[in-house]
Amino acid sequence: MLSLDHASFGVQGKTLLHEATLACRPGEVTVLLGPNGAGKTTLLRLLAGLYAPTTGQVQLDGHDLHRLDRGTLARARAVLSQEIHLAFPMTVEDVVLMGRYPHHGRSTPAHDQRIAQQALATLGLTSFAGRDYGTLSGGEAQKVQMARVLAQIWEPPAAGSRVLLLDEPVASLDIQYQHQLLQVARQLAREQAVVVTILHDINLALAYADRLVLLKNGRIHRILEQPAALTDELLGEVFEVDLRVILNPLTGQPLVVYAGPAGGRNV
Amino acid sequence: MKPSPRRVRLYFSILAVALLVALVLSARLGAVALTFAEIGGFLSRSTGSIDPTAELHRAVFFQIRLPRVLLCAAVGAALAMSGTLMQALFRNPIVEPGLIGTSAGAALGAAVIFVLGNSLSWANVPILGALVLPAAAFVGALAATGLVYRLSATAGRGRVPVTSMLLAGIAVNALAAGGTGFLSYIARDPQARSITFWSLGSFSSADWPSLYLVGTVTAVGGLVALRYANALNALQLGENEAEYLGIDVRRLQNRVLLLNTLLVAVATATVGVIGFVGLVVPHLLRLLRLTDNRTLLLGSGLLGAVLLVISDTVARTIIAPAELPIGVLTAVVGAPVFLWLLSKHRIAGLG
């Protein structure tokens, strides 16, 4: 269990996240949704232990995240950020192997190598192993980083939860790979990992979320335990445009469509 | 394609052999030319002969040549390794060890001694007098680097803001260069000449104590640097990503900066400012498609040593009996090599 308890975070007197309380459970995909500047990335970085909350607490399985040893945390929790560029050339395989750095001394090089290959295979990147990372397209690079992150938490830690945090993981991917990557995340949740992801595409969020966390102006606006409970009104409040939830005629699932600026009835 | 481990071992064997050959050739050449047989004799037998020529050659070898070639190797290794460290730390291919003020500060410290030295009585005290110049250079190096660090370090979240550091480095470099320029201007001609020569580096004052100092710092520093290799690899992903992999980025930055400052300050305080080695050597190794910081650090230690031993040999033989300042040579040879790399678009990390 990864939880925020009245956690706030600010820099230079500006509060980016106010009093957030949220419990992310193993086995669930929690999706953070909200407009730009709503505090999604700040919340994710608090969950990652990158930021220490200015007030409140962040805990993993009841332990204060900042009291945890860096290595222990790194063996249990992996984070995928957006658009990672390398200053110097490096092969795809070496990038993925970096995910195994926290395990050095506890794992063998051969074992790390095997995990790196399996992580690459999971994302359909086996043939990319020897490629220079710098020559990849944005989407390919993102998938390689996902493989690195998977390699980091390939095996569940000796004790406690395994955590996967994703910051807009599919922004640079085409639709096929958006689903591929999110299915991998989904699978990890099935294996009892805590999965938290920021998504911009509301329909992808609806398709993969077990819980939806709506953020606005640096606060958690609403937590929906049932994503299907998302309403036009709630979407309008959060995004300030006119969004409608309709039923997808093919699947019968909720589908969000854009209907114009907030309050506008320009149809 | 990345070289296989076998191929990497081959590169290292070639570099090691090249270093050995360069050391022996360099020890042979000079105002007094020694034969291989003589050198072999010196190294294998501890007692000398009674023949005065042989005794002279023996003295030249042990008192002048050997400490000098070994000091060249140590300084070359130190500068090249710190270049690799700095490029990895700043995630930037145009960074070189002097960027954060270390060498410019050392030059200013040395210039102060050159100008004030004669008026200070302790400069004439034996041993202590010989230490004043390197000590002042070392203090200057640390002061300039410390200033860059203090100027760029902000309260913030405690990490070293590397971009601010680059900018502060440029400013402090300019400040130190201005100070050195001013001292050269007010200096009398011989003093000004000393400042100029020192700014171009020279191994002519090499002796065993300076070799022990630089050799120890380089060897220990190099071993410590290797421990940071993985962390520096991870840093290529970005500072946050390195944190997510369990690395204390702030501590890494502080330690690598301190390590780099010690390596460059000790080397520069001993032999003066030698440019370009630290910038070019890591790039030459990247041409061999070496990417891991462990192999880059080891390789730059070896290649830096080879290049500086060769450079010094050329510097002291090309216009013998005079000696060309080695900094002239590393710049005159190093710059075109670097430009050639640029023109071929073979600088890794530049668009």
UniProtKB/TrEMBL annotation, chain A:
Source organism superkingdom: Bacteria
ABC transporter domain residues: 2-242
Entry keyword annotation includes Protein biosynthesis: no
Pfam families assigned: ABC_tran (PF00005)
GO molecular function: ATP binding; ATP hydrolysis activity
SMART domains: AAA
Key words of the record: ATP-binding, Nucleotide-binding, Translocase, Transport
Keyword Transferase: no
NCBIfam families: PRK13548.1 (NF010068)
PANTHER family: HEMIN IMPORT ATP-BINDING PROTEIN HMUV
Function, in words: Part of the ABC transporter complex HmuTUV involved in hemin import. Responsible for energy coupling to the transport system.
Protein name: Heme ABC transporter ATP-binding protein
UniProtKB/TrEMBL annotation, chain B:
Example of a GO cellular component annotation carried by this entry: plasma membrane
Domain of life: Bacteria
Pfam families named in the record: FecCD
GO biological process: siderophore-iron import into cell
Gene3D superfamilies on file: ABC transporter involved in vitamin B12 uptake, BtuC
Leader peptide range in chain numbering: none
Subcellular location: Cell membrane
GO molecular function, one term: transmembrane transporter activity
Family: Belongs to the binding-protein-dependent transport system permease family. FecCD subfamily.
Protein name: Iron ABC transporter permease
Organism: Hymenobacter cyanobacteriorum
